[in-house]
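Weekly sync, protein design subgroup
Attendees: M.S., D.O., the rotation student, P.L. (late)

Item 1: inverse folding check
M.S. brought a backbone from last month's batch and wanted to see whether the design step gives back something sensible before we order anything. D.O. pointed out we never logged the input encoding, so this time it goes straight into the notes. Structure tokens as presented (73 positions):
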């Protein structure tokens, strides 16, 4: 076995082990909730690289106050 092939096998083996736990949770019917948020403020000095300025839906501050208001509803 070549070194590259051994590294591929090791990489895929590690990935399979890393995915084993999430798959067990999903198999048991336990819901997984992705609760992360993205915070950004286009008004900051230097601006932000994304979203584009012409994107009316996204190009506005996304700070904790905004998410708090959304969570209340």
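Designed sequence read out in the meeting:
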């Amino acid at each position: 076995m070549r070194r590259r092939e051994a590294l591929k096998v090791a990489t895929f083996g590690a990935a399979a082990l890393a995915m084993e736990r999430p798959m067990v949770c999903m198999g048991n019917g336990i819901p997984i909730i992705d609760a992360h948020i993205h915070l950004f403020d286009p008004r900051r000095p230097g601006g932000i690289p994304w979203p584009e300025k012409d994107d009316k839906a996204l190009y506005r501050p996304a700070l904790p106050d905004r998410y708090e208001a959304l969570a209340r509803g």
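Discussion: The radius of gyration is 21 Å. Helices lie at 3-27, 64-72.
Action: P.L. to compare against the previous round before Friday.
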